Amino acid sequence: MDSLKGNFIIAQGGGPTAVINASLTGAVVEAFDKLDRSSQVWGAKDGITGLLNEAFIDLRNQPDGIWDKIRITPAAALGSCRKKLTEEDLTHAVEICRKYDIRYFIYIGGNDSMDTANKMSKTAQEMHYEMYAAGIPKTIDNDLPETDFCPGYGSCARYFAQATIDLGADIRALPTPISVMEVLGRNAGWVTAATMLARKKPDDAPHLIYVPEAPLSIEKFLYDVKEVYDRRGWVVVTISEGVCDEHGESLAASIGKAAVDGFGHALPGDVAPTLAQTINREFGLRARSEKPGLVARASSHHVSSVDREAAEGVGRFAAQHIFTGNTDFMAAIKRESNQPFKVSYFAVPLEKAANIERLLPRKYINKDKNNITDSFRKYVEPLIGGPLRHYTRLNY
Amino acid sequence: MDSLKGNFIIAQGGGPTAVINASLTGAVVEAFDKLDRSSQVWGAKDGITGLLNEAFIDLRNQPDGIWDKIRITPAAALGSCRKKLTEEDLTHAVEICRKYDIRYFIYIGGNDSMDTANKMSKTAQEMHYEMYAAGIPKTIDNDLPETDFCPGYGSCARYFAQATIDLGADIRALPTPISVMEVLGRNAGWVTAATMLARKKPDDAPHLIYVPEAPLSIEKFLYDVKEVYDRRGWVVVTISEGVCDEHGESLAASIGKAAVDGFGHALPGDVAPTLAQTINREFGLRARSEKPGLVARASSHHVSSVDREAAEGVGRFAAQHIFTGNTDFMAAIKRESNQPFKVSYFAVPLEKAANIERLLPRKYINKDKNNITDSFRKYVEPLIGGPLRHYTRLNY
């Protein structure tokens, strides 16, 4: 293939992951390879706002060997944003592209970013500006449709599954025998569901798993905790930050509804500490809460090799596909086999990916809505990229 | 040395660490080596309560090769407790020792456990029962006196320092530019202070560090956060869970003083979410909180090799020293040199270690009481057992 001409820009949107920079590296290295030397390869600083503000990062002009390091660096190397573009912004964005002769635009992100990429492409067509636009999926939430999984998910899943093993080892030996761990994921329970991988024997943590796809009442929660405590003497709960009650209200908010501080201000609170406090109060049992929060998605110590390779591969594919004249697509991952784990990449129309949330299927949630079924293991286990560290126990 | 006769029991007290089982292994393997085959080597199940309840774990009768695995397993392999013994308990405990011909008692733990070991020894003397008692220091809090550091501290320090780097990388690239991370440590700020190791350049996280040794008002906290935000555009705060205001009241409680839920119950809350909410409310800035909690002290992925080796070494020393006829001592660590890092072990009378909390010295806290001075690096850096993972940034 002859060298292509045309300037290239890539951006990162939404919350970062531990492997989003692998996707960036995959796409950028491909751009270096396929575009002629006169074509610019830019990063937009802080997501799409960097395009609007003409804040471009010159990706050609970086220290030697930097991409080998950026590839394994968590968080968004270009910076990120959470901006929804107005009609006016979209027109402006395309005008900026015209001004700088930007012919290729790739957005690495989640649902909102796919929506932005889609609208950029449509607006360019309406404005008769020839431009290719594509998306690369990225989200720990794993909630983009069409793709088998979203890069970033496997590493975050690995983090929380290992944290559940670690926490379980600690809690099991303690006189404070209850802990509620809050897990990332507002609407989708994919990450929380992955904590089931911590369990090798029936007695292992986690004993209860709550995902946002199943509404939960505080009464049911307390009943479940008491039941496990009475039976096992210790309880580790994993719960998605976004779990809601039957009325769709966040569980934390619904418990602390009238909670106000000394100044009369509302105190919404996080779900795990709120639930731990409720256990303390209702049962007089010592309960704690843990919330690794963003540490979980930024930890390079828990990156899944499968996740990182797919992140890079899908990034490379997106650039290859855009450079062969395709537009308006999201690069996606197809699982070819589990043993050995193999994937291939393909393109789906952006409109099939934008603004659609893929939730955890009902079949993976047990009947009692407080755990994840064993059938989920087949889906998730290969994505965490190798065995977790399970610990040895003395015989007694 | 001829083989010794006499039964041996070892227990683990208080909150576990990632390396407490290395101390257990060091002492137990030494017991196997020095005691004759007719002498029992027991673990007390769940700390001193296992002695009182005659719940003994037969440590000789374990699968082959298990100690190589237990050595690297976080959390308390024997189980733990937080029991303070009454006079009656102490008499009972010594009677149990007499009943089972237990001549050697070692307690691995923090201040309370050293106190228990000390009282056991004194009570045995009063009861004219010949028995040797010793303590092995263990606490992430690093607050035992006499020893250069407490096993468990270096690994927990390593965890939080790396978590601060990871969180910093994430937050720096985000439109939610403030995070408050809650760090383990109720009264002593040693672990929180170690997050200073995350900072290589002045702009790096953490920007503000608060330890319990320096009282903090909410007004001062808000002033500091705003100042850093205005100057840098992003803020990562690390704060000990136990930070108090000028009146000695926990900061979380003092803010949410009149906080009650819908049922009129007090909601004490954790310090980090309470502070993040206060930033949101006072400045209209998005702020988050993270609280790795027990995950931090149970993580085998962040174990410091220096910490683990010292944990095992001090455990082995305690057993060697007790078997040569010494009693009433805590095994302790002396730092011989920093380059290369070398330690030796020695014994201190238990009463010099029991019930004394070694707080972070004032010299390590900056004048403005919102950071840790560079001089602390020399103390803490060798303890984390090797460089942290610092990340590469693109040039822009």
**Tally of DSSP β-strands of chain A:** 11
| Biggest beta sheet attributes of chain A | 7 strands, mixed
Name the strands of the widest sheet of chain A in spatial order.
3-2-1-4-5-10-11
- What sequence of helices (H) and strands (E) makes up the elements of chain A? EHEHEHHEHEHEHEHEHHEHHEEHH
Net shape of chain A: elongated
Tell me which oligomeric state these chains represent.
Answer: homodimer
Structural class of chain A: alpha/beta
Mean pLDDT of chain A: 94
Portion in beta strands of chain A:
15-25%
In angstroms, what separates the terminal alpha carbons of chain A? Answer: 67 Å
The whole-angstrom Rg of chain A is 23 Å
Stretches of chain A where pLDDT is under 50 for at least 5 consecutive residues are 258-263
Helix content of chain A: 25-40%
Number of helices of chain A: 14
Biggest interface, chains and residue tallies:
A-B, 77 and 77 residues
Write the layout of secondary structure elements.
The structure is a homodimer of 396-residue chains.
Chain A: E1 7-12, H1 20-34, E2 41-44, H2 48-52, E3 56-58, H3 66-70, H4 87-99, E4 102-109, H5 111-126, E5 132-137, H6 153-172, E6 178-183, H7 190-193, E7 208-210, H8 218-232, E8 235-240, H9 251-255, H10 271-283, E9 287-290, H11 295-298, H12 305-323, E10 329-338, E11 341-349, H13 350-353, H14 376-380
Parallel strand pairs in A: 1-2, 1-4, 4-5, 5-10, 6-8, 6-9, 7-8
Antiparallel strand pairs in A: 2-3, 10-11
